Amino acid sequence: MSESIEADETVDARGSACPGPLMDLIGKIKDVEEGTVVALLTGDEGSKNDVPEWVEEANHELLDIDDNGEYYTIYVKKT
Amino acid sequence: MTARIVIVGGGSGGTITANRLAEELEPQIEAGEVEITIVSDNPNHIYKPLYLYVPFGEATLEDASRPLVDLVDHRVNLVFEHVTDIDTDSKSIATAAGSELEYDYLVMATGAIPQPEETPGLGDDEPGHHFYGPEAAEDLRTALANFDEGHLVLSVIGTPHVCPAAPVEFPMIVDQWFRERGVREDIDITYTYPIQRLHGVRPTAEWMVPRFEERDIDSKTFFNVDSVEDGTIETLEGKELDFDLMVGVPEFTASSLVQDAGLGEEWMEVDRHTLESDHAEDVYGIGDVTNLPTSKAGSVAHYASGTLVSRIASEVRGQVPTATFDGKTICFIEAGTEEGTFIEFAYDREPVVRDENRFLHWSKLGYNEAYWLTARGVM
Ligand SMILES: Cc1cc2nc3c(=O)[nH]c(=O)nc-3n(C[C@H](O)[C@H](O)[C@H](O)COP(=O)(O)OP(=O)(O)OC[C@H]3O[C@@H](n4cnc5c(N)ncnc54)[C@H](O)[C@@H]3O)c2cc1C
């Protein structure tokens, strides 16, 4: 667990299939202020690659990816 | 005691389910032990896939619509009212016209509602067109008929959207349609998609790449529309794209009934195998309104109805329901105006897209006619 990272917002996209988790994250990032840390919960294996690629493309910051067994938590900071 | 089965929504999921239940439970209905009711706010059943053909003058709105009374088994009661409230504790629903109906089993089949007003570039006074509603599809027909030069952009703006195939088909049909009209050389076509490949379903994306190249359809990925002004789209990723005609795939939401009745935060939350509500007893969901981890497509409603009918019929007969839904999804994909293909997958089965051919194009057109038999529960 990334105990040092505190998310301001959480998007629970477990159970949603590709491209659902990434699109849910994009929807949230659109709505929040700069500097906000969003935690995306996703069970989709593809998210591990898709999300970092988009974060780089859109110039946000990828803080960490936690593997919780059943799902991943991906921390992204809006810049 | 009569078991009252109430279905909210007379679209694909609701109609197929009602017709198959009437067939399955015929003896119980005849004996007065079961009553089936559809409550729908549209007296007509709409076959929405035909909206894709309306902009090209290949189908009319009349082709896509039939009175529910002509499609639904005579043993099913029809109530044409808008449902405003669902109370899952007292097991009753209320309508705008003031009716109250009690149920023993409730099936939610209210579909997904396009939100062009909420979608950048679409909606009244906005430049973008779409084909997810009757007037919009007709307006696009006029716009296309008057378009013989410039840049056409097909942009997938919102997800999840209904029908994973339609955004793939539109650019390919429009390409060939312009060629047939002899104006293709004066028109550029660009397709945009929010993630890093051309489609959410990977094999579909891979199938699209060479086809779009062959047809000179340009594409932009990681393209999340943020704002649209004066013929320019700006994206969340900081890109800009000019257009003369924009066609967008809007965002969709579930009916507000879902959230108000505590049936889900956004989409109706159901067990992906049993279709039972995660939040209320004896409540089921079918079709686009659900959060099933597959596409919002008519075929999903069609296949899921088999499971739903079997489970409800078992409950009514006092048996343990055993049927489960495996997520089966099939979508035809038009690859222009003369060839087509299809994609098939399930929760645990990877999608496969086959090469397109004329036969599958004609199969899709044939199915569009035969659909009314699906709605009737015949096939
Ligand atoms: C342009 C387009 C192309 C498509 N192409 C394809 C395709 O090629 N293949 C495919 O498989 N699928 C396709 N689809 C998707 C397909 O149409 C839907 O998946 C299917 O209609 C879902 O059925 P449903 O019963 O969930 O919802 P719908 O068919 O939308 O029915 C919902 C019903 O609920 C009623 N309703 C809603 N709210 C209330 C309320 N509060 N009270 C009472 N009644 C209410 C509505 O009036 C309607 O009758 C396409 C859709 C569109 C728009």
UniProtKB/TrEMBL annotation, chain B:
Domain spans labelled FAD/NAD(P)-binding: 4-295
Keywords: Oxidoreductase
A Pfam family recorded for this sequence: Pyr_redox_2
EC assignment: 1.8.5.4
EC class: oxidoreductase
Keyword Metal-binding: no
Species name: Halodesulfurarchaeum formicicum
GO molecular function, one term: sulfide:quinone oxidoreductase activity
PANTHER family per the UniProt record, alphabetical: FAD-DEPENDENT PYRIDINE NUCLEOTIDE-DISULPHIDE OXIDOREDUCTASE (PTHR43755:SF1), PTHR43755
InterPro entries: FAD/NAD-bd_sf, FAD/NAD-binding_dom, SQRD
Keyword Ribosomal protein: no
Descriptive protein name: NADPH-dependent 2,4-dienoyl-CoA reductase
